[in-house]
Amino acid sequence: MYGASPEFHVKMVRFESGEHFPLILGRDGVPLREPVFFFEKDRHFAFNTLDGKARVVAMVHDFLQERGIDLRGRVRQGLVLKILEATSLKNRLRAIGPRTVLIRERQQQKTRATPKIPIVGGHEGSHRRRRAAQYLKWSSERIRDELGLPVAERESVKSELAKLKELLVDQAKSMAQPLLPALSMEQSFVLLDAIRPESPTNPFPSQQFRNFVLLLAFWETGLRKSEILGLEVGDLSPTGVPPTLKLVRRPNYKKDTRARPAALKTMPRTVPITPVLHACLAYYINEHRRKIEFTLRDQGDKAGVKRFKSHAFIFVGARGAPLSSSGVQKIFATLGMRIRELPAQFSPHALRRTWNDLFTELSAERLGPRETQIREHLMGWVRGSRQSAHYAMRTTQRQAAEVVQQMQRDWVARWKEMKECQRT
Predict the structure, then answer these.
(1) Domain Tyr recombinase: where (predicted)?
(2) pLDDT digits (tens, 9 = 90+) for 332-344
């Protein structure tokens, strides 16, 4: 029932310490008790990980509510879910959310593509099934221990949970995640030309210079969206020293009041940038960013001035708050919709893949065996990460296709040469 109205939803609360914690709320706004204890052990997880797990837990409770399943009553009898119920839950976990529906509708409007089945991809589906199995196991074992079940029922619950894991996780192998599209060289030129301030193809009526610097930073560095949004003014190296950006881990950062705080996903590090990007960032900070405060003062927006002065994040919205993740997505969605040469699913991750493609092509001969180590440092991956080969896969595939085409051309040339020799 992909169109069913959910009974439960997720609310991320923020403590005074800056820590975020997920609550599963019913329609009456009252939080469920069990998920609070479940997430207590996960409080150190990143915001997006907690949010993703909480949404799965909400979907599990929606399913139990919809089917009238009393999990406590089931466990008392040594049961958990029936086979058909587990299969139905597996299908339910594949349903896409309203935001994904909107993104797909926009893509279809641009590409005239055939509407896709309203389910998530194999990779996301696999994540959801594992998280659902983990929560049901934790919850069932907690109920089992609270009830003090005898040995026979305890063993029955253990057996039922093993069957549930097999149905939800083991038998449902994850499909290979398709490679997200990177930009070709021609598309990169189109993008850089379109985002120039005052360019006739620039689709932004305001904040043109901010968006130009933001996209230039994504294109040149290949950093993650959260890493760019987490940059503060002091993270840009001062003038007169080698231009760099410092990526700092700031867990539970009180000054980051965004609904989805920008967090460093992996390794803190310092990445070199070109003098051009450094100059653009410095000019934006010293000129355009400062003008936001003056504009808010002229408008008499005291709350906006307070918001602006409460943080030091480089990229700022028009009302003084740090630029949000959804604001960045809107910028990329606008480019994807308005610039015909760009892919409809244009995203910051597409520029991360573009960076890796360019790095692979330009560094193979110059860096030799150091290529992987340097890529791991710049991308923030741990030593020996498989991500390096994964991101280079698109270049490898293209080079393999070029080799095959060259082999075919050589074969045809030799065939023609042989025919000519036979004629003479």
Answers:
(1) 178-404
(2) 999 998 898 998 7
